[in-house]
């Protein structure tokens, strides 16, 4: 997404999934450092784009754990959000359904019209680790533009829109 982000949109990857401790409701304050880092990351984002595999018919536990840390905190409340899946048609629907359900609990503003399936296979990945498929790259850019436009529609326009 960073490679295809058009000018004016900064795509930032949250890379701390594996460092997040397991969520427990009565966690002592202050929150663990990686949770604070997640909160800062989300607070800086104008919108959030999710891309996840499906494990055993639903979200990977690690992503559900991340989302559990946002329940009741307002981190994702009213945040424009969408998902992009690279799974082929007929795969990954359980993960998408669970994601939609959980994002509803945390108050994210998911726009179903932006949520997209752009199937990828391993041969679509170049030697540098980036997707080479022009269809995917164009589709991914379109997702960023539409998510950004939605944020602009909601009246929080900033020239340095950040999509996480
Ligand atoms: C533990 C595990 C469980 C999976 N469960 C599902 C599943 O329930 N439904 C599904 O469509 N894909 C499932 N997959 C496939 C993943 O969603 C994803 O497509 C796959 O890991 C990508 O593999 P690749 O990197 O080898 O292409 C599972 C993969 C793993 C590792």
Folded structure, characterized:
The chain is α/β, with parallel strands linked by helices and 164 residues long. The protein has one domain (31-156): Flavodoxin domain (Rossmann fold), CATH 3.40.50. The protein has helices at residues 33-44, 61-68, 93-105, 134-153, and strands at 9-11, 48-50, 80-85, 109-110, 116-117, 161-163. The strands form two sheets. Strands 2, 3, 4 and 5 form a four-stranded parallel β-sheet that branches. Strands 1-6 form a two-stranded parallel ribbon. α2 links the parallel β2 (48-50) and β3 (80-85). The chain is globular, with a radius of gyration of 16 Å. The termini are close together. The mean pLDDT is 92. The site of flavin mononucleotide (FMN) has 9 residues, from loops.
Second rung of CATH, namely the architecture? 3-Layer(aba) Sandwich
- What share of the residues does DSSP label as strand, in percent? 5-15%
Question: What structural class should be given to the helix and strand makeup?
Answer: alpha/beta
The pLDDT mean sits at: 92
Outline of the structure:
By secondary structure, the chain is an alpha/beta fold. The protein has one domain (31-156): Flavodoxin domain (Rossmann fold), CATH 3.40.50.
Secondary-structure topology with pairs:
Layout: E1 9-11, H1 33-44, E2 48-50, H2 61-68, E3 80-85, H3 93-105, E4 109-110, E5 116-117, H4 134-153, E6 161-163
Parallel strand pairs: 1-6, 2-3, 3-4, 3-5
This protein binds flavin mononucleotide (FMN).
């Amino acid at each position: 997404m960073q490679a295809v982000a058009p000018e004016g949109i900064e795509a930032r990857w949250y890379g701390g999934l594996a460092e997040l401790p397991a969520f427990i409701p009565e966690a002592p304050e202050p929150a663990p450092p990686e949770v604070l880092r997640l909160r800062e990351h989300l607070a800086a984002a104008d919108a959030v784009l999710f891309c996840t595999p499906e494990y055993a018919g639903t979200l990977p536990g690690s992503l559900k754990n991340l989302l559990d840390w946002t329940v009741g905190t307002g981190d994702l409340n009213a945040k424009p959000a969408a998902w992009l899946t690279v799974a082929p048609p007929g795969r990954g629907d359980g993960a998408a359904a669970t994601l939609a359900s959980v994002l509803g609990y945390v108050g994210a503003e998911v726009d179903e019209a932006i949520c997209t399936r752009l199937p990828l296979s391993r041969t679509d990945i170049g030697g540098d680790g980036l997707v080479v498929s022009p269809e995917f790259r164009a589709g991914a850019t379109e997702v960023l533009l539409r998510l950004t436009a939605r944020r602009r529609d909601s009246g929080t326009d900033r020239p340095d829109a950040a999509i996480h």
